[in-house]
């Protein structure tokens, strides 16, 4: 039937064939669709069970959960009594017991603010942002450090455990992102001096190991400043961590800036927007959205690397658990301690990862041009 | 107020270029350009690719900077001063080949952005203006969609509305239909013809010769960075004087 042809009636849209649903159908189509695939599936599942079963048995089935001393440990599986007995110090470090309610309030405020900011349906985001940026840091500072309004002063030497880890991570994250953005813009600036300063700053901090930065902050910095000025050890570590990670952040953000077509800035220029408006309203919102995976990757790395503060004598979550291992009542529970520390870190990092994926989906606005 | 408004009425030309020269490195892209655009004039600029026509109109709002000569836009001489450049840009609308809409903002927000941040107008008024212009380019029903959800022709019409929202005194079009599928070219040209009828001063770089015949007061032919021929469309198309123009016309009209 080559040659001429024509159609009078248009074809109606139909549903695709084989729209199978259900678990069994899925299993059949994806794991057992043919002999080779079935064998591979069975072997994979077998290996997984074989590899994970001893751990499950140790960590869950044969584990001891209840009790308040070493006598509660049967020795067959993990003894989580070690964690529960030391739980308070894992959370608060050496923070005086009488003042721990202040830490609780800060935790609660932070959780509330995070929920307010993170859940799209809750209204008043502008207020949440203002409180999170201005109100919360002031409140946390007053509550945690004390010394005002009749609150007992608690030196940062007594801070520790999860509370210290979260403090360092939060300040590191909140501080490094804006500094990183400014550095990234600086590195792309047309002004040679601004560009040079940014490049040198980024390359210096990126080229130095974080451990070195922390050592320098705690050992070398006091040599250079007059003795009467006493810098807080935690503050020094915080500044070091912030500057170190801002260099990484700058490069992540720069990657995003470079991916935005030049036409976007030109359109902004043509409309009469000035440099900061073009950056703040057009280029950065798109660039940051593009590099959410990279930013969150850096956040996660930062969060985990907070445990390095233990080398300058700060007792973060990991260090406080390690300290617990040397307790003569609890010798030999290193595995439980490290597994628990790993679990806590994993929960926080995995949450960040999931939330970033959710945000990426939410910010999707169709194809970019 | 600034000197722009003081001189913006009367007989001052909309755009005046004298002895304009520009180089990219050693490459001489614009050579001794003299061009005056009167108020309400519609000019079509054409020429082979690489002839400098886009560069020429991009100099008018300083997306490109020139090295020699002077440009006066709406009575305001162009300098390197950022404030001065921004002042000029507020009076000059531009439409790009690739639309350059902001993909992270809705159509409506695209039209509101510069009104809010540059003109500092209240939100309600800004949205009203935006809807008016979206209505005029017949795309108001898509106001809450994102650019990525629209067709090329629709995007370009939004881009025109976005530029018009700033109530510019002159509109620059940089090959506005070159990136469009054939069936979408007409909807954009219709909007441009309408705009021309309303008396907008327009400078269009385009290969749409039909458009040039319909609305242009003058057609400018450029090659190798210089203006080769300048004539009303009837003369330009029927009795071109230069050999280059004849060759160019035979190439684009000869199929």
Can you describe this structure?
With 369 residues, chain A is an all-alpha fold. Chain A has 15 helices and 1 strand. Chain A has a domain at 81-95 and 154-363: MetI-like (MetI-like fold), CATH 1.10.3720. The mean pLDDT of chain A is 87. Chain B has helices spanning 3-6, 53-60, 82-90, 107-117, 123-136, 152-164, 182-197, 209-215, 233-238, 243-253, and strands at 15-24, 27-37, 42-46, 68-73, 76-77, 92-95, 170-174, 201-205, 218-223, 226-231. The chains are: A mainly alpha (369), B alpha/beta (255). The A-B interface holds A 261, 263-264, 266-267, 269-275, 277, 281-282, 285-286, 289, 363, 365-369 and B 61-63, 82, 86, 89-90, 92-94, 96, 98-104, 113-114, 117-118, 146-149, 155, 162-163, 166.
Brief summary:
Chain A is mainly α and 369 residues long.
Could you report the average pLDDT of chain B, rounded to the nearest whole number?
A: 92
Count of β-strands of chain A: 1
Secondary-structure element series of chain B: HEEEHEEHEHHHEHEHEEHH
Q: What is the radius of gyration of chain B? A: 18 Å
Assembly annotation: heterodimer
Shape of chain A: globular
The top level CATH class name of the domain at 81-95 and 154-363 in chain A: Mainly Alpha
Distance between the termini of chain A: 43 Å
Residue-averaged pLDDT of chain A: 87
CATH homologous superfamily placement of the domain at 81-95 and 154-363 in chain A: MetI-like
How far is the first residue's CA from the last residue's CA of chain B? Answer: 53 Å
CATH-defined architecture of the domain at 81-95 and 154-363 in chain A? Orthogonal Bundle
Number of strands of chain B: 10
């Amino acid at each position: 039937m080559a040659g001429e042809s024509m159609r009078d009636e248009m074809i109606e849209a139909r549903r695709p064939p084989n729209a199978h649903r259900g678990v069994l159908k899925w299993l059949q189509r994806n794991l057992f669709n043919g002999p080779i695939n079935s064998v591979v599936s069975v072997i994979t599942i077998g290996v997984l069970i074989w590899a994970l079963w001893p751990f499950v048995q140790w960590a869950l089935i044969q584990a001891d959960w209840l009790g308040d001393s070493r006598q509660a440990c049967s020795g067959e599986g993990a003894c989580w009594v070690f964690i529960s007995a030391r739980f308070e110090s894992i959370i608060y470090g050496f923070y005086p017991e009488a003042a721990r309610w202040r830490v609780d309030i800060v935790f609660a405020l932070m959780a509330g603010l995070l929920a307010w900011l993170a859940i799209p349906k809750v209204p008043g985001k502008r207020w949440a942002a203002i409180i999170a940026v201005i109100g919360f840091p002031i409140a946390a500072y007053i509550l945690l450090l004390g010394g005002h309004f009749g609150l007992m002063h608690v030196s940062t030497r007594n801070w520790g455990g999860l509370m210290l880890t979260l403090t360092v991570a939060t300040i590191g994250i909140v501080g490094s992102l804006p500094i990183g953005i400014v550095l990234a813009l600086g590195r792309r600036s047309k002004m040679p001096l601004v560009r040079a300063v940014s490049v040198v700053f980024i390359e210096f901090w990126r080229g130095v190991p974080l451990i070195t930065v922390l050592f320098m902050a705690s050992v070398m910095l006091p040599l250079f400043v007059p003795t009467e000025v006493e810098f807080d050890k935690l503050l020094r570590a915080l500044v070091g961590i912030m500057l170190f990670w801002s260099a990484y952040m700058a490069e992540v953000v720069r990657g995003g800036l470079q991916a935005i077509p030049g036409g976007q800035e030109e359109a902004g220029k043509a409309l009469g927007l000035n440099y900061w408006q073009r950056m703040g309203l057009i280029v950065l919102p798109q660039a940051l959205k593009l590099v959410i995976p990279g930013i969150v990757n850096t956040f996660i790395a930062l969060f985990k690397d907070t445990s390095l503060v233990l080398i300058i004598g700060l007792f973060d979550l990991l260090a406080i658990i390690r300290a617990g291992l040397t307790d003569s009542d609890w010798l030999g529970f290193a595995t439980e301690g490290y597994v628990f520390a790993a679990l806590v870190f994993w929960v926080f990092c995995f949450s960040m990862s999931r939330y970033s994926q959710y945000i990426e989906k939410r910010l999707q606005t169709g194809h970019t041009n | 107020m600034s000197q722009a408004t003081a001189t913006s009425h009367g007989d001052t030309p909309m755009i005046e270029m004298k002895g304009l020269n520009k180089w990219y490195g050693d490459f001489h892209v614009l050579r001794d350009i003299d061009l005056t655009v009167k108020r309400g004039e519609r000019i079509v600029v054409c020429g082979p690719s690489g002839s400098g026509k886009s560069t020429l109109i991009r100099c008018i709002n300083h997306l490109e900077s020139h090295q020699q000569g002077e440009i006066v836009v709406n009575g305001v001489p162009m300098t390197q001063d950022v404030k001065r450049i921004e002042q000029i840009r507020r009076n000059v609308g531009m439409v790009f080949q690739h639309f350059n809409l902001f993909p992270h903002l809705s159509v409506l927000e695209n039209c509101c952005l510069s009104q809010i941040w540059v003109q500092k107008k209240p939100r309600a008024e800004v949205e009203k203006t935006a809807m008016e212009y979206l209505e005029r380019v017949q795309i108001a029903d898509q106001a809450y969609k994102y650019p990525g959800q629209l067709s090329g022709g629709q995007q370009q019409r939004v881009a025109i509305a976005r530029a018009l929202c700033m109530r510019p005194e002159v509109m620059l079009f940089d090959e506005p239909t070159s990136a469009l599928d054939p069936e979408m070219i007409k909807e954009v040209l219709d909007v441009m013809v309408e705009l021309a009828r309303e008396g907008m001063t327009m400078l269009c770089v385009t290969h749409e010769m039909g458009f040039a015949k319909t609305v242009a007061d003058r057609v400018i032919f450029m090659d190798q960075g210089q203006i080769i021929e300048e004539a009303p469309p009837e003369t330009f198309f029927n009795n071109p004087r230069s050999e280059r123009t004849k060759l160019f016309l035979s190439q684009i009209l000869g199929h």
